[in-house]
Design brief:
Elements: H1 2-30, H2 36-72
């Protein structure tokens, strides 16, 4: 049983750490003051960084999907 415990413990500790982080994040979100300026800056950065690559990948994939469906139909 010691072997099994040693194998399972790291995984359970990682899951426990994740759950603790989620709970602490939830508490911080509900406690004023909410950092609106930081939220808006981070959201704007994410939009700027992720929008163009998303469009650049989605257009060719859509064309490929339409082409494949036209061949099958």
């Amino acid at each position: 049983t010691g072997y099994v415990r040693d194998q399972v413990r790291p995984g359970l500790e990682a899951v426990g750490g994740f759950v603790r982080m989620v709970v602490l994040t939830g508490k911080a979100l509900l406690r004023p003051p909410f950092q609106w300026r930081e939220f808006i800056l981070q959201s704007w950065f994410l939009l700027r960084v992720a929008f163009l690559p998303t469009i650049a990948v989605s257009i060719p994939l859509t064309v490929l999907l339409i082409f494949t469906l036209n061949i099958l139909l």
